[in-house]
């Protein structure tokens, strides 16, 4: 049995040698098929590093996670395949523990979890695991997939910029299949950025896409419930008190600032995303010179409208 390995990356040279070396150490050599590396216009030497480690390199001309994932997937030839991020160090037991879940025929994807090396982010992520457990968690950074199922579902979602994992998981659950996240298998997520940089990228930018996902109705109910504006507003309102509670619980003073910060970023992102949708709707609903409303374009999924605007 062979498994193809895929990675879509951008400007990952800082940690790529560590990441790729770790993959080679954790996954038995005899099961590794093709190593497929999709580069998204890197300006560092990511491509050269990938080639040095024996990965076949392809260029993601269109850019974005969805396009990169689908380009990588189009090269997969094995019954199962794995995906990794450019800044993740696999734990020793990852392959042994995760692959066994694919023995169940209704499991489409299985993965472990990861915790950031940044102390504040790690404490917050530990809280998430302790409070919510792993049932609702998903990512695309340390996964094993059943190829035939992903192909049957049309590959990875293309018309989303950030929430590729959430949309893919919704498709899998709607098909009556399983996505398993084993949070006892913890890898290291290398995160050198400041908490403000991370909050802006991971919460503000991601949240700009939320209104389109809610209006398109492409998520399962559990995902929708987490993203609804009412719950986001309540969390924002109580974020100072929650931040204080987290600080006392996890003994990490920076959580007093970090939790309100991410709630502000999520709300700002949501408001900005809503504004983009309304502007696009207004544009596509403008009367033409013949006096008729031309609504044809507005029937497109709003994810397409959102992507056209950013």
Summary of the model, kept short:
With 310 residues, the chain is of the alpha/beta class. The chain has 14 helices and eight strands. The longest helix is centred in the C-terminal third of the chain and has 30 residues.
Give an account of the 3D structure.
- This protein is of the alpha/beta class and 310 residues long.
- It folds into 2 domains: 3-192, Spore Coat Polysaccharide Biosynthesis Protein SpsA, Chain A; 221-309, no CATH class.
- It is built from 14 helices and 8 strands.
- The chain has helices at residues 16-26, 46-52, 65-74, 94-99, 119-132, 147-152, 164-174, 195-207, 210-216, 221-227, 229-237, 239-250, 255-284, 302-309, and strands spanning 3-9, 32-39, 56-59, 80-84, 88-89, 107-116, 142-146, 178-189.
- Helix 8 packs parallel to helix 13 and helix 13 (255-284) packs across helix 14.
- The model is unreliable at 294-299 and 304-310 (pLDDT under 50).
Please describe the structure with a list of short key phrases separated by commas or semicolons.
about 300 residues; alpha/beta; Spore Coat Polysaccharide Biosynthesis Protein SpsA, Chain A; 8-stranded mixed beta sheet; 14 helices; disordered C terminus
- Based on Cα principal axes, name the global outline: globular
Instruction: Going across the biggest sheet, name each strand in turn.
Output: 3-2-1-4-7-6-8-5
User: Number of DSSP strands?
Assistant: 8
Instruction: Name the average pLDDT.
Output: 89
Count of individual domains: 2
Order of helices and strands: EHEHEHEEHEHEHHEHHHHHHH
